[in-house]
Amino acid sequence: MVPILELKNLSVEFPTRHGTLKALDHVSFSIAQGEVVGVVGESGAGKSLTGAAIIGLLEPPGRVSGGQILLAGRRIDQLNDDQMRLIRGREIGAVFQDPLTSLNPLYTVGQQITETILAHLPLTPKQALSRAIELLESTGIPAARERIDHYPHQFSGGMRQRVVIALALAAEPKLIVADEPTTALDVSIQAQIIELLKRLCREQGTAVMLITHDMGVIAETADRVVVMYAGRVIEVGAVKDVIHKPQHPYTIGLMGSIPSMSAHQTRLMQIDGSMPRLNAIPDGCAFNPRCERVMPICRTDRPELMVAGASQAACWLHRESKEGQP
Amino acid sequence: MSDVKPLISVIDATRWFDVSAPWLERMISRKPRTMLKAVDGVSFTINRGETLALVGESGCGKSTIARLLVGLHDLTRGEILIEGQSIRTIHGSKGKALRKRLQMIFQDPFASLNPRWRVGRIIAEPLAAHTNMTRDEQLARVDVLLRQVGLDPADKSRYPHQFSGGQRQRISIARALAVNPDFLVCDEPTSALDVSVQAQVLNIMKDLQRELGLTYLFISHNLAVVHHVADRVGVMYLGRIVEIADRDTLFADPQHPYTRMLLSAIPDISGSGRARTPVAGEVPNPLNPPSGCTFHPRCPFVREQCRQEAPERVVFKGIEVACHGVAQGWPMQAN
Amino acid sequence: MGDAFKRLWQSDLAWSWRHSYIAILSTVIFVMMMVASFGAPLIAPHNPFDLATLNLLDALKPPAWNVDGQALYPLGTDSQGRDLLSAMMYGMRVSLLIGIASVALSMLVGVVLGLLAGYAGGRTDAFIMRVADVQLSFPAILIALLIDGVARAVVPREMHELIAIPVLIGAIALAGWPQYARTVRGSTMVEKNREYVQAARVIGISSPVIMFRHVLPNVMGPVLVLATVHLATAIITEATLSFLGVGVPPTEPSLGTLIRIGNDFLFSGEWWITIFPGLALVLLVLSVNLLGDWLRDALNPRLS
C-alpha cells in the first residue's frame, strides 16, 4: 500500500545574514495509512519544522531546498499557496500546541467547524452543522448541541484542544500532523486527549504524525517512532524497540536521562554538552563531539540510516550488521 | 520520626488574592468582592537536608506556596517558621539575615536572569547585598560558584543570551548558592528544559545538596522527576494539600483518590499497559471551587458527606491524608 | 573602550545601519549640521552678532550665484547686512541646543515618572497617569505659550532675555514628558513581573535599586526611538514659537526667528532670507525623523 506520507531527503534552509542555515538535512521517513508515527527530539532538532514543511506553513525566509514530500504518492512540496490550501484541511489536518491561539476568538466554535466542512466537503450548511455537532460529541464535549454556539474563550484548555481536534478531523483528512498537542495541558487532561486522539484516528483510519519531546506520550500512542537530532533523522523503529533497545548512542542517552517512576537511580544518565546550533553543526556525524563511542570515521563521514537490531540508526557502529540499506 | 526540630514549619498558611472588579463597577452592579484562595490552609514541615516535593496541576497553589516561603507574597493567615523565626520578619530589621538563608530558583531560564547584566554581576549581586566582600573577593567567589555548577570562570563576562537553557539554570543555581543559604525553593526548575538537559541539572542539584547540606522544596507537575529527587511528596489540589507521604509509600500505595488519578494519568514509558482508574473531568475554576471536599465532582468514590464537609487531615500509617473515605475506611478499591 | 567599540561595530544594529542608505545619509547630514552649528563660532564666515562688522550698505544682497551677489556672502544678507549663512549656522545652534536640552529634560522626567508609575502601581500609578492624560489633552504649543506668558508676567522685564531660553526649554520639555512616561510605564509593568525582578526581590534588593538597576536598562529601547522623533518635534515647536514671536529673544535668533524675519520680505523679492532658513529647518528635522524611523525598525526584533 502506498504510504500516506513519504519524506525523501527533505532539506529545509534558512538564509540569514550569517550564511545559510540547514535546518533539516536529508530527512527521510514514511507514514503508512492509519499508522501513528511519533517524531521525537529535543529543542532545535527540527521536528516542528518538519511538520511545518509538510503542511506548507514554513515561515519565510525558510524554504524547502531539496528532497520531496509525497502525500499518497503525489508530490506536494512544489505546490503554491492556493493549491496547498485545498490540501490543508481536506487531506492533512493540523493540531497545534496552544489551543488558545489555534481557534479564532471572534467566531463561535460551530462557525469555525462548519466553515472547514463546507470548504472541503459537498454538504449543505444544515448537513454541515449536524456533522459539526456529531464531531463535537465524538470528542467528548458534553451538551454539544448547546456548546456549538459558544466562543472559544468559554471553553477550558482541555475542552478547547478537543475542539481543535474536532476541527482537524472535520473534513475527514487522511493524515493529522499534531505538534505538541498535549504539552500545554495538565497531566490528567493530557491522558484524556491522548486517548481521544488514538480512538478517533483508529475509528476513521486516519494516520497521525505526532511531534513531541515527551517520550511517555509516544510510548502510549505511537506505533513507530522517528528520533531527530540537529535536523537529521538518527533512529527509526517500532516504539517498543526504540524505547527498550535503543541503538543510536544519542537515543541510548536520551532514554537513560528520563527519570523512571519504578527504578531507584541516584544519578540520571547524562549526555555532556548540548545539541549543536544550526550554524555550528560538526562534520560527519552531528553527534560525534558528545558521543562516548566515537570513532575516527564519525568525524569525517556522515552516516546514513542503516539496519541496527530491529530498528534503523544513522550510526557507524552498526556498519557491520548489513551494508546500509534503509 | 526524628525528634530534631524541622528547619521549615508551615502552619495553616493561607494566601488570598483580591481579584474583585474595580470599586466603581462593584458599587454599580452590587457584586461582592471576589477572592482567589490560591493557598487555603496548608501545613507541612521540612527537615534539614531533606527534599520535599509539592506536586499538583494548574491552579493548585504550589507556585504561590513557593513565593510565600521566600517572602515574595505576604501571608493572609497562618505562619511560616524558619528554624523558629517567622517569615513575617522578612520586612523588618531581622529580615536581611533571614533572606540570606532562603533562596529561590525559577522555572523560566530565559526570564530569571537580567538580559542586560553580565553573568558575573548577576551571580555577585547577593554578595554585594549581604556581605562586605571587596570586589576581588566577590570575583573569586563567583569563580568558585561557576566551577561548582560545572561552568567556566571565563563565562562571568558573558551575557545570558549566549548560554543555553540548561546553562542558564545552572547560573541561577550559582546565584542562589552565593551566600550559602540553608534552604532552596525550586519552582519547576527543569520544566522548561529538554530531557537530557534536565538530567544534567537534576544531577548537579543532587550533588550540591549532598556537598552543602541543602534543604530543598521542589515544586513540579512532573511525577517522574519528583520520584527521582524527593524524599517526601505532598500532593496539592486547589490550594490544599490532600496527601503527604514518603516518596516510596506515596508511589507504591497512594491513598487519596486524586493521587491515584494523577499517578495513573502519567504516560507510562515502560508501556506495561497497566490498568488505570479513568480520569474524569478537569480542574475546576479556582475562583469558584466546589463545596465541601473540592475534589468531589471528579471523585469516583464520592458520597454526600464529601459535598457538605471539607475533610480534615488525618495521619494514617505515617501518611497525612485529607479524605473522608480514607479517614472512615470506606471501600475504595482501585480497579 | 576600543573593545566596546568593536562590539558595537559588529552588532546587529551597526550592520543594519551600514546596509541602510537612508540611515547613513541621515546620519551624515545630521552630523554635518551639528558640526556647522556648534562649530559656528569657529567656522562661520562672519559673526552676525558683532555689530561692528555689519555694513548696512550690504543689506539685502542676494545669494552669491545671483548677478548682484557677492562671494563674501554666499547665501545673501538680510535687512541689516547680516550674512545669512552665518546667521543660519548660529540659528541652528540655538535650535539644536533648545531641542536637545528639552528632549533630555523631558526624557528624564518622563522616564522617572513612568518607572515609578509602572513599578509602584496602585494610587501612584493612577495619579501620575491622570496628570499625564490631562496634559496630553493640551496641544504642546498651547502649553508652551501658557508657560511663556506666565513667565513673562511674573518675571521683571530686564530678566526676560535671560530666562527666555530656559523657559522655552522647560516649556517644551513639559509638553513632552507624558509620551515617555506612558511608554516606560507599560514596559515596566511587564518587566516587573519577570523572574529576574522577583529574583532580585528574593535577594533583598530594595525597590528603588531594582527600578533603576534592573528594570531601567530593559525599558530604554523604545525610549531612545521616542527621543529621536521627539527631537524633531521639539525643534519644530521652538521654531513655531519663535516664528510667532514668543520664542527666543531677537538677539539670539533661531531658525524660526530667521524665517519670521524673512517672511516680511518674501513677496518683495528678497526670497532668500526666509527660504534658506526654512530649507535648513526642513533638512534638519527630516534627517532626525528618518534616523528615528530607521532606529525603530532596526530595534524591532520581529522585522529582522
Structural class call of chain C reads mainly alpha
Mean pLDDT metric of chain C: 84
Q: What strand line-up does the widest sheet of chain B have?
A: 6-7-8-3-9-10-12-11
Sum up the overall morphology of chain C in one term: globular
SS-based class of chain B: alpha/beta
- Low-pLDDT parts of chain C are none
- Which assembly state applies to the chains in this document? heterotrimer
Q: Roughly how much helix do the residues of chain C carry, as a percent range?
A: over 70%
Largest interface: A-B, 43 and 37 residues
Query: Considering DSSP H and I runs of 4 or more, what fraction of the residues of chain B is helical?
Result: 25-40%
Please describe the biggest sheet of chain B, giving its number of strands, its sense, and whether it closes into a barrel.
8 strands, mixed
The overall average pLDDT of chain B, rounded, is 87
The gyration radius over C-alpha positions of chain B equals 21 Å
Instruction: Tell me the fraction of residues in β-strands of chain B, as a range.
Output: 15-25%
What is the ordering of alpha helices and beta strands of chain B?
EHEEHEEHEHHHEHEHEEHHHEEH
Number of helices of chain C: 12
Number of helices of chain B: 12
What distance separates the N and C termini of chain B?
33 Å
Rounded to the nearest angstrom, the radius of gyration of chain C is 23 Å
Q: SSE layout and pairings?
A:
The complex is a heterotrimer of chains A (326), B (335) and C (304).
Chain A lengths: L4 E12 L2 E13 L4 E5 L6 H9 L7 E9 L2 E2 L5 H10 L1 E4 L3 H4 L6 H12 L4 H14 L5 H4 L9 H13 L5 E5 L7 H18 L2 E6 L2 H7 L2 E6 L2 E7 H6 L4 H9 L48 E3 L2 E3 L13
Parallel strand pairs in A: 3-8, 3-9, 6-7, 7-8
Antiparallel strand pairs in A: 1-2, 1-4, 4-5, 9-10, 10-12, 11-12
Helix pairs in contact in A: 4-5, 5-7, 7-8
Chain B lengths: L7 E11 L4 H7 L5 E12 L4 E5 L6 H8 L7 E6 L2 E2 L8 H7 E4 L13 H12 L4 H14 L16 H13 L5 E5 L7 H18 L2 E6 L2 H7 L2 E6 L2 E7 H6 L4 H9 L38 H5 L5 E3 L2 E3 L2 H5 L7
Helix pairs in contact in B: 4-5, 4-6, 5-6, 6-7
Chain C lengths: L1 H9 L1 H7 L2 H18 L1 H4 L40 H37 L1 H15 L3 H15 L5 H33 L2 H9 L3 H38 L10 H9 L8 H28 L5
